[in-house]
Amino acid sequence: MSFKYETITLPAMAQFEDLESLVPVLSAVLVVVASYIVYNVAFRTDIPHIKGLPEIPGAVPVFGHLLKLGEDHASVCEKWWRQYNHSVFQIKLGNTRAVVVNSFDDCKKMLLGNQNAVIDRPTLYTFHGVISSTQGFTIGSSPWDESCRKKRKAAGTALSKPALRNYYPMFDLESYCIVRDLKADSRNGELEISVRPYIQRYALNTTLTLCYGIRMDAVYDDLLREILHVGSAISLLRSASENLQDYVPILRYFPNNTKNAYSKELRDRRDAYLNLLLDKVREMIKKGTDKPCISAAILKDEETKLSGVEVSSICLSLVSGGFETIPGTLTSAIGSLSTEEGQIWQDRAYEDIKRHYPDTSDAWTSCYMEEKIPYINAIVKEAGRYYTVSSMSLPRKTVTEVNWNGAIIPPKTMILINAQAGNHDVDHYGDEASKFDPERWLNTINPPTEREITGLPHLSFGTGSRACSGQHIASRLLYAALVRILSSYKIVASKTEPPNTDYVDYNEIKTALVAIPRDFKVKLIPRDDSATSDCLYSAKERTEDHYKE
Ligand code: HEM
């Protein structure tokens, strides 16, 4: 035993002594590894500090500026712009460096002056990795590649100005349904009413018809509300403040990651209704009862260059592009028009409708074909500018260097366009920039004539290589609905549930990618009851054969 003991322990002792001599080396290695991990988790960003571009002070380890940005990124960045006197600056969203652009002129210069360089979109862990793993990315969240180019082209063709004529019957039907149901549900103005649900159905039915040839007649239809609910919840998951794990990767590895579980649940619910809609189209094609729509055209066209996932992605892009932006803009505009100050704008709009179409029924049949009434055009533009429903636009990413006044912004840098700040920039819109005033777009008021705008009126649709593909259809939808509602009713804000018309605070959920206006009610006072009834009757006659469920 003792022999064994000696033969085994002596070399072991020697090894131990060797190890002891290694301790300082191992400790040094450990310190280096630990520092490396701490540095990477706490301080490293995907893009190193950009020389020559101011950085907002006060970034903290791990989170960078994320916590300081709070829930309302657009307003905080707008405040930093004025506080530090730099319209363009860099910040750290956890491990992601971002360049924020604020003034109107700088936003325009970044998007138009560097069209090719800022054509990309960033990918986010939760939205792209979890939610979009089954149906593909929407166009607005696709990085720039060949597939995105094809999808954007297909959507651009379907939503181009000339293509709008194909949708006249649908515009007619859907805007008719707004007035029909507002009239019925308010008992022709006896009861105060919330307008948003009617506008939500308007926007959603338009894109569902466009994509699938399917619509829902009831304002509180189960499928309609499911699509709206899931769509909103998903768009909330795209916002930085709601989803820290996108920017602070270590959070993804925490046990019981509820964000991932919730994202998967939403993804499954969205897959369920998207598949249901496509199955309905397939069934209608089989029976020969399909309506002209994007998915039927592509499903039937064997020569199409688009894959199944690309078709789903286009439909998803159009549905999600419009279902919150249109209601956000139109509902809020109706809120501003319903105030005491708004009564004069409504009266002038009504007079202008009558000036161009002495017979109201002509206004009703023209409003989805042409946008000729200057006062209504002015309201549409002001609604888009003032209520910047997508306050931080959709993020962009550089593909090549951008030389910003000598500072080199490298490829793969996130670019955030603060459309809300640019749209309320006093240097561009004057001292009254923070006031809702449709007449800023007019040259003369009596009679209203439109100011000629060369270039970009506002930043709400973005601009340049990835500008909103739906802006023509969006303007037409806003215009048609306003003509029909304003020619039928004088809208007066409820005394007990009035609208909030502050351009920041009207939004109930500041973290959402697209604003959700706080609810409010209005009273509808009929303008010319028999004219409205005639218009409704004719619209019913014209549209009832179209797009029946
Ligand atoms: C008032 C209504 C709308 C607003 C305020 C709005 C706003 C925006 C904004 C800010 C962008 C990003 C632009 C950029 O990065 O420069 C965008 C992109 C997009 N919008 Fe809209 N939008 C509206 C309506 C619509 C509608 C009705 C549709 C479709 C039917 C639509 C489809 C799209 C698509 C497909 C993109 C992605 C473009 C791309 O990434 O290439 N939008 N929209």
What labels describe this entry?
Cytochrome_P450_fung; 51% helix; alpha+beta; 4-stranded mixed β-sheet; 549 residues; 20 helices; monooxygenase activity; Cyt_P450_E_grp-I; two-stranded antiparallel ribbon
Short description:
The protein is α+β, with helices and mostly antiparallel strands. The chain is built from 20 helices and 10 strands.
Notes on the structure:
Heme binds at residue 468. This is Cytochrome P450. It comes from Cylindrodendrum hubeiense. It is a single chain. Mean pLDDT is 90; it is low at 1-8. The N and C termini lie far apart (93 Å). The strands form four sheets. A four-stranded mixed beta sheet has the order 1-2-6-3. It has 549 residues and is an alpha+beta fold. Helix 7 packs across helix 20 (529-543), helix 8 (196-212) packs antiparallel against helix 12 and helix 13 crosses helix 16. Strand 7 (442-445) and strand 8 (448-450) form a beta hairpin. The chain has 20 helices and ten strands. Protoporphyrin IX containing FE (HEM) binds at residues 111, 139-140, 152, 155, 159, 207, 317-318, 321-322, 325-326, 329, 389-390, 393-394, 396, 460-463, 466-470, 473-474.
